[in-house]
């Protein structure tokens, strides 16, 4: 009613004018919005550029002081006495990753097979959220668990083990990545069409044979991609190893010893008394770019596997 | 005559099936057992130390007086910045990719870039924040530097989940809206976004609950461990719950473990509540088309 009355007082020309103004405003919004959205989308690219820029800038400064070959082939990492051989940190990282994968791959894939091939709809509905809880627990909590529960437990079995050791950290990193492997592999297995299973069952195969000889091969690319992704997570995991693995750069593959990983050194270096633009400060970034390259390669590999070997039905 | 069925072979195959079935169930039970052990340990160690005083005290040199109030407030303030920044940028990115972007190399590049960012270790984001926000922008070890670092960290997760939510809105209702004379943005603002909001919020809550638990990048960008005031501006020093927990676990005296466990209980309860809200939204507003 109100607008009707207003319209009565306006001439037709005015109304057309008003309408045009509205349209112009509308048109302006239509033009501005995509630009704003594009700018937001560019933020993610800027983030990547920012990461590359910061890592490269500081590590180039580092490599002007310490030769690249000394860094990657040196076997003594004690930055406070100017020894920058990164091998012990890489060894520590690989040791943790290897232990974690030994724990997580068998359990994770077994969980995935159970969930996709054996579990009833009801069981799945209960178990999946529980796995999601396991995935949502902060890593600082896992670190605490490793240090105060797993380590003392293992020290009962291996008496000469230190309280900070690679094994308990690795085991707990493994527990942390179980849900990731389980849920991604389960996705891959659930994507295998039911007709394939029914065909095999109809030929007299047992459920186990169906899982092993039909579903697993068909879902293999997805499973491998999930494992590679889990490796990347284990390499980049920080808090568990900072809390539980110790801070002793150690070129060893003995899991009862205390070690240090790439990530744990970054924490130590950034929290210690390191002044801006000192060699140690720069070394954090050199370690950072090493870590970044490792995980980036893993992530690309995982994406490549799941895209390249995707089975189409 | 050729119906010579080897019964013993069938029996062994059936037995193998059974054995492996129980092996798989055992593996599943093992994973559950880890969770149970973890929760049992933490609750049994920390429950006695969770009290009203613990919730409203600042960190203290004595166990009886130590509390997590600064951490709780710090986490809340941090989320108050991180949530709007990351959700606005993340949803906008998702809208651009799903509704506006043409299928060309640039779009694919953004898409791949987002996926790769999701796989970058959080500590590398900490290094980015340290260089860019702390030193280049000159924020120092402040709340805003930590919150912006955290925003970039959760951005990829929010983009991906928002994209899924937007994609699940059926094409027909967009066409219907356009057919009624609505412009593209009107369609997006009044039809697509409302329809995808449950999915977006669910994803955002899950991403933010990850952010609340994140520790590593905040250690790098300088969250302090001993804070006796709550932040009063963007440029305040701050701490968050996981940092408090970390500093307690790092103390040499064993008794601090119990304080750390109490802190973990508080953190887990908050995370569980957030997850419950996310699940509730997902179930309540599940799209039915």
Q: What would the keywords be for this entry?
A:
heterodimer; A: two-stranded antiparallel ribbon; 78% helix; B: 289 residues; mainly alpha
Give your account of this protein's structure.
The complex is a heterodimer of chains A (313) and B (289). Chain A is 78% helix and 1% strand. Chain A has 313 residues and is mostly helical. Chain A has a two-stranded antiparallel sheet. In chain A, a hairpin with a 4-residue loop joins β1 and β2 (83-84). The termini of chain A are far apart. Chain B is an all-alpha fold. The relative contact order of chain B is 0.14. The chains are: A mainly alpha (313), B mainly alpha (289). The interface between A and B is large, with 86 and 86 residues.
Described by strand count, sense and barrel closure, the largest sheet of chain A is:
2 strands, antiparallel
Name the chain pair with the biggest interface and residue counts per chain.
A-B, 86 and 86 residues
* Number of contiguous helices of chain B: 11
What's the pLDDT, averaged over the residues of chain A? 89
Distance between the termini of chain B: 58 Å
Mean pLDDT of chain B: 89
State the helicity of chain B in percent bands.
over 70%
Poorly predicted runs of chain A: none
Oligomer: heterodimer
- Reading the helices and strands of chain A in chain order gives HHHEEHHHHHHHHHH
Distance between the termini of chain A: 61 Å
Question: What's the arrangement of secondary structure elements?
Answer:
The complex is a heterodimer of chains A (313) and B (289).
Chain A: H1 2-9, H2 12-65, H3 68-73, E1 77-78, E2 83-84, H4 87-118, H5 121-136, H6 139-157, H7 166-190, H8 194-202, H9 207-218, H10 220-236, H11 239-244, H12 262-271, H13 279-308
Antiparallel strand pairs in A: 1-2
Helix pairs in contact in A: 2-13, 4-7, 4-10, 5-7, 6-7, 7-10, 8-9, 10-13, 12-13
Chain B: H1 7-46, H2 52-56, H3 69-100, H4 105-118, H5 122-136, H6 143-167, H7 171-179, H8 184-213, H9 216-220, H10 241-249, H11 256-284
Helix pairs in contact in B: 1-11, 3-6, 3-8, 3-10, 4-6, 5-6, 6-8, 7-8, 8-11, 10-11
């Amino acid at each position: 009613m109100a607008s009707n009355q207003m319209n009565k007082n306006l001439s037709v020309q005015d109304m057309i004018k008003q309408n045009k103004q509205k349209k112009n405003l509308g048109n302006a919004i239509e033009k501005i919005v995509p630009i704003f959205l594009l700018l937001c989308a560019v933020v993610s690219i800027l983030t990547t550029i920012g990461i590359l820029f910061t890592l490269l800038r500081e590590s180039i400064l580092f490599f002007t002081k310490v030769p690249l070959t000394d860094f990657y082939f040196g076997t003594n990492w004690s930055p406070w006495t100017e020894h920058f051989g990164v091998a012990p940190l890489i060894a520590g990282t690989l040791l943790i990753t290897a232990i974690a994968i030994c724990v997580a791959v068998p359990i994770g894939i077994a969980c995935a097979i159970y969930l996709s091939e054996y579990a009833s709809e009801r069981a799945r509905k209960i178990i999946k959220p529980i796995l999601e809880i396991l995935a949502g627990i902060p890593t600082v909590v896992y670190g605490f668990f490793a240090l105060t529960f797993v380590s003392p437990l293992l020290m009962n079995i291996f008496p000469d083990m230190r309280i900070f050791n690679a094994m308990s950290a690795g085991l707990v990193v493994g527990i942390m990545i179980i849900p990731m492997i389980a849920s991604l592999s389960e996705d891959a297995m659930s994507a295998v069409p039911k007709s394939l299973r029914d065909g095999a069952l109809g030929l007299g195969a047992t459920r186990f044979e169906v899982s092993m000889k039909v579903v697993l091969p068909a879902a293999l690319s997805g499973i491998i991609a999930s494992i590679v992704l889990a490796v990347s997570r284990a390499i980049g995991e920080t808090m568990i190893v900072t809390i539980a693995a110790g801070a002793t750069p150690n070129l060893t593959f003995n899991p009862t010893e205390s070690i240090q990983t790439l990530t744990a050194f970054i924490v130590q270096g950034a929290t210690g008394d390191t002044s801006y633009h000192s060699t140690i400060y720069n070394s954090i970034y050199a370690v950072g770019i090493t870590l970044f390259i490792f995980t980036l390669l893993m992530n690309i590999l995982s994406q490549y596997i799941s895209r390249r070997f995707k089975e189409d039905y | 005559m050729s119906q010579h069925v080897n019964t013993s072979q069938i029996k062994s195959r059936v037995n193998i099936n059974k054995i492996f079935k129980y092996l798989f169930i055992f593996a599943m039970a093992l994973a559950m057992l880890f969770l149970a052990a973890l929760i049992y340990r933490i609750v049994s160690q920390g429950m006695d130390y969770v009290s009203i005083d613990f919730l409203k005290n600042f960190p203290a040199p004595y166990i009886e007086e130590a509390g997590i109030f600064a951490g709780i407030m710090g986490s809340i303030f941090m989320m108050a910045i991180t949530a709007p920044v990351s959700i606005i940028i993340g949803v906008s990115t998702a809208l651009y990719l799903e509704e506006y972007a043409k299928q060309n190399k640039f779009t694919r590049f953004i898409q791949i870039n987002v996926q790769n960012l999701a796989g970058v270790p959080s500590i590398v984001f900490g290094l980015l924040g340290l260089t860019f926000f702390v030193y280049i922008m000159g924020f120092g070890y402040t709340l805003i530097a930590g919150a912006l670092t955290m925003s970039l960290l959760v951005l990829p997760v929010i983009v991906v989940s928002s994209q899924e939510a937007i994609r699940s809105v059926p094409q027909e209702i967009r066409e219907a809206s356009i057919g009624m004379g609505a412009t593209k943005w009107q369609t997006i603002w009044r039809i697509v976004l409302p329809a995808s909001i449950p999915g977006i919020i669910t994803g955002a809550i899950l991403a933010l609950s990850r952010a609340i638990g994140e520790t590593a990048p905040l250690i790098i960008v300088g969250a302090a461990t001993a804070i006796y005031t709550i932040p009063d501006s963007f440029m305040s020093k701050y701490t968050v719950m996981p940092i408090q927990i970390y500093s307690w676990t790092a103390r040499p005296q064993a008794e601090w473990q119990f304080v750390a466990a109490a802190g973990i209980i508080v953190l887990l309860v908050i995370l569980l509540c957030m997850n419950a809200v996310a699940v509730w939204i997902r179930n309540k507003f599940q799209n039915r088309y």
